[in-house]
Structures are given as C-alpha cells and as structure tokens.
Amino acid sequence: MTKTYDRAYFDRWYRHGGIGHAARLARKVQLAVATAEYHLERPIRSVLDIGCGEGAWRAPLLKLRPNVRYLGFDSSDYAVARYGRSRNLHLARFADFAHLRPCPPVDLLVCSDVLHYLDTRELDRGLPALAELCGGVAFIEVFARGDGAEGDEHEFKQRPAAFYRERLRALGLQPLGSHCWLSAALATHATALELPG
C-alpha cells in the first residue's frame, strides 16, 4: 500500500493530537534558528525546507524573523495545491534534488522527518543537495533504529544511526547535536569543543 500525503495524513500526524504540537514545533524552530545565528554571527535571512509538508515551519520562523525568506519543497500534491501560493511551497520529490538547485545556499536548511521514509536509492540521489544548499546550519531531524520515536511507522526504514552519520559527514556536514549540522563553509571556523571529537 503506497502512502498518500493527503489532508487526512496531515490531520492525523501533525494536527489533532499528533506529533506536530505547536509548542513542540516552536521549540524546534527556536533551536534551529538560534544554532544557525550563533554560527553565522547574525540573524538568518533565508530558509530552505526540503520535505516541508504543509509548510508548518513557516509561521514560527516568521514569528521569530519576520523578514526571513522561506522556500519549501514537498512531494505532496495536496500540500502544494492547498498552500503552495500562500506559503511558497513547490512540488518536488527528494530525488529531484539530484539536479534541483532552486536557490543559493541558505542560512538555515530544514529537512525534518523525511530521510527515514526514503528508500536508499532516492536518499542517496538527493542527499548531496543538503550540503550544497546549506550555507549555515542544517536541521536534519532523522530517527534511527532503536530511537523509539513516536509517529508514522508505515514505510519507516529501520537503519542504524551510523548510516546517516557517515553519509552526512561524507558530504562535509559536521554534527552539532540535536539534529543540527554545520555546513562545510562554517565548519572550518568552529572551535574544537563545538564539534564532537
């Protein structure tokens, strides 16, 4: 059975008591923004959200930084048809980022709750874009085997954490913790204890 990212899906998992509680999302956004601004040493100006769904990150981002440029991409026909114009969302599958470069590198790249649902071939095709399109910090929320994460388990790939860690590091991204990764451009300026040993 193929998963459909329609209104019912977003209602179940991101509204009506699902995993997308507004306060929880606001804390994630605050963490990602603060981490990016700490390393950039200035307020963020641009955000690219890959696998954005309905663009839920947009409102809390604009609440913190009203002038930020937000651009989202998702494979959900429903989300893009309903919110594309009002939230600047565009249709694309993750693998499309093998060639898609819709903007210059951004201050904050978001890829939240996406990678653990992709088959390995699609993941590997699109993954280099995360590093190439991130000029500051990437918030890559991904769950691995044994994490005990709550949420949609349909088509969840039970991979070890090392699977993701090795691929992201190979692209030049450096782990900062709490799902945040430092771009290669900024990693050379990080101090020894800002990065894991």
From TrEMBL:
Start and end residues of each Methyltransferase type domain: 48-133
A molecular function (GO) term: methyltransferase activity
Residues of the signal peptide: none
CDD domains linked: AdoMet_MTases
Keywords per UniProt: Methyltransferase, Transferase
One example of a Gene Ontology biological process annotation: methylation
InterPro entries: Methyltransf_12, SAM-dependent_MTases_sf
SUPFAM superfamilies: S-adenosyl-L-methionine-dependent methyltransferases
Protein name, UniProt field: Methyltransferase family protein
Organism expressing this protein natively: Thermomonas haemolytica
